[in-house]
Specification:
Largest sheet: 5 strands, parallel
Strand order of the largest sheet: 2-1-3-4-5
GO biological process, one term: phosphorelay signal transduction system
Radius of gyration: 31 Å
Distance between the termini: 65 Å
Organism: Paenibacillus ferrarius
Number of strands: 9
Mean pLDDT: 83
InterPro entries: CheY-like_superfamily (IPR011006), Homeodomain-like_sf (IPR009057), HTH_AraC (IPR018060), Sig_transdc_resp-reg_receiver (IPR001789), Tscrpt_reg_AraC-type_HTH (IPR020449)
Strand content: 5-15%
CATH class of the largest domain: Alpha Beta
Structural class: alpha/beta
CATH superfamily of the largest domain: Response regulator
Pfam family, one: Response_reg
Keywords: DNA-binding, Phosphoprotein, Transcription, Transcription regulation
Low-confidence stretches: 285-296
Length: 525
């Protein structure tokens, strides 16, 4: 899932720098793609950096924020906008809100203020991204239907626009026929519901291998045992073909024959080309023919496969959104709901839903929790649901996939929290002689103060105040043992304004006064 892109429009360089640092250090999935000091420069940047969100001040030279947002609404009506303003400019801010600004940030603003507003922006961004993915999925399913109909010479919208759309899609592309060995299928005696699982598994295996190789390619189920692969010309080399064959056998125990069908095929040539290479595939390697009844189910199978692929993408977006927005409770609720829905499905649907869930979980692990573990088939579970499994076995397998994901997620979260606490402790060690408030440290590590307080105690076993006090007293003990500094000088050196208060706190920790502690070091030993 991509990070949201932010353009900062602000005429004060130091404020721009501070905002950029907040985004660079933050955990909400945003990245700064550009900066501008006025609306005119920002408009020139929009097309170049294509941001998802604009943070803009109102009072700026050359072109102020109101005029800038007005131009944005004409050219980019869907772009998210957050207004930066001072109290004196509130009337301007109201005008900007009428132009569709998402929210306001009142300057001077704290890290917590920025995080609250950005949380709102993140929710809107993920909603927008999810809708875009759904629309793309619908367009892809429509295109798949038209391509499949053209390959099988079935009725479809033979309009000039439809043919142009297919010709455009096939321009500079080459086609490959992927034929499952029917002898392997016959041995297992797969039924229609079993074939849906096999088709879904194979399509994911092939597309993951192609994606891992960095190829822009698309796989289409044409008939129950045949796929057509559409790829850029001269990209599916012998090594990739062999990897696909090996993975098909390793995961599914099905031999796969791969045949090139040529490049730059026009929409009107598809049916003839498909028949030609289908016959060639049937005549090679002991592959059996396909019955008419099986072929007749192809349209419904193709649509189902496309819907299943879209479901995987939607699940992944939901998982990533919950993680990036630190919504642990929402993540758990989502996974619980998915397992309940799965348990209520028919056995055939249950297997596919379980595999879809597993692929989405593994995809999220690959992208967010363990991105260093990049392998071509990282999103494909090693032990996929089997055609002979019962409903209980499928549910148990799916529950294990979720449990493994949550274990990895919790470890990742703990590791992230440990790093934050390490940074907090380091800050305390370096600033204990200053005021060193909880809000200061929380600001430094970009966390909400309340959340930081709970996290700190959970990680260290001490409250923040108790920890800082102990650090200061330990430093005071070192100074008492090793220097001749006066008591009030030591109190001042470790961040206490009142020597008497320092003495009382020291007594509570060491059960003696600072003077007694110092004299004790001189006692014979």
């Amino acid at each position: 899932m991509p990070k949201g892109k932010v353009l900062i429009v602000e005429d004060q360089p130091n404020f721009r720098k501070g905002l950029r640092k907040m985004f660079e250090d933050g955990q909400q999935g945003w990245t700064v793609v550009g900066e501008a000091s006025n609306g005119q420069d920002a408009l020139a940047l929009i097309k170049q950096v294509q941001p998802d969100l604009v943070l803009t001040d109102i009072r700026m030279p050359i072109m102020d924020g109101i005029e800038f947002v007005g131009h944005l609404r004409q050219s980019h009506p869907e772009l998210l906008v957050i207004i930066l303003t001072g109290y004196k400019n509130f009337e301007y801010a109201q005008a900007a809100v009428r132009l569709g600004a998402l929210d306001l940030l009142i300057k001077p603003c704290t890290e917590q203020d920025v995080q609250q507003v950005m949380s709102k922006a993140s929710e809107r961004f993920y909603e927008k991204y999810s809708k875009q993915q759904q629309q793309l999925g619908q367009q892809r399913r429509q295109q798949d239907q038209e391509l499949r109909s053209a390959l099988l010479n079935l009725p479809y919208t033979h309009s000039t626009d439809a043919e142009k759309s297919l010709d455009s899609m096939l321009s500079n592309k080459e086609l490959w026929l992927l034929q499952m060995n029917n002898e392997d299928l016959a041995i297992k005696d797969y039924g229609i519901s079993d074939m849906r699982l096999i088709q879904f598994a194979l399509s994911n295996i092939v597309e993951e291998l192609l994606k891992g190789a960095g190829l822009d390619a698309h796989l289409l189920l044409v008939e129950h045992d045949r796929f057509v692969l559409v790829s850029e010309c001269h990209t599916v080399d012998a090594a990739i073909q062999e990897a696909i064959r090996q993975a098909s056998w390793e995961y599914l125990k099905i031999h796969l024959n791969i045949h090139p069908m040529g490049a730059d095929v026009s929409a009107t040539q598809l049916a003839e080309r498909y028949v030609k290479f289908k016959e060639a595939a049937l005549s090679s390697g002991g592959v059996l023919g396909t019955s008419g009844s099986e072929t007749g189910n192809g349209s419904s199978m193709t649509m189902t496969l496309s819907l299943n692929q879209s479901k995987v993408n939607e699940l992944e977006v939901q998982l990533m959104s919950a993680i990036l927005m630190n919504q642990e409770e929402s993540l758990q609720q989502l996974l619980d709901r998915l397992l309940i829905e799965l348990s209520n499905a028919s056995l055939a649907d249950m297997k596919i839903q379980a595999l879809s869930l597993s692929i989405a979980l593994l995809g999220t692990i690959q992208k967010q929790l363990a991105p260093e573990e990049q392998t071509s088939l990282a999103r494909i579970p090693g032990d996929m649901p089997q055609t002979h499994w019962t409903a209980e076995e499928v549910c148990h397998w799916a529950s294990e996939q979720v449990a493994n994901f949550l274990l990895l997620f919790n470890n990742w979260q703990a590791s992230k929290n440990d790093n934050l606490i390490e940074r907090a402790v380091k800050y305390i060690e370096e600033h204990y002689n200053e005021e060193c408030r909880l809000t200061d440290v929380a600001f430094h590590i970009h966390l909400n103060a309340s959340y930081f307080s709970v996290l700190f105690k959970k990680s260290t076993g001490e409250s923040f105040t108790r920890f800082v006090t102990r650090v200061r007293m330990d430093k005071a003990a070192i100074l008492l043992r090793n220097t001749d500094m006066k008591i009030f000088e030591i109190a001042c050196a470790i961040g206490f304004d009142e020597p008497n208060y320092f003495t009382n706190v020291f007594k509570q920790q060491y059960l003696m006064s600072p003077k007694e502690y110092r004299n004790g070091r001189l006692a014979p030993g």
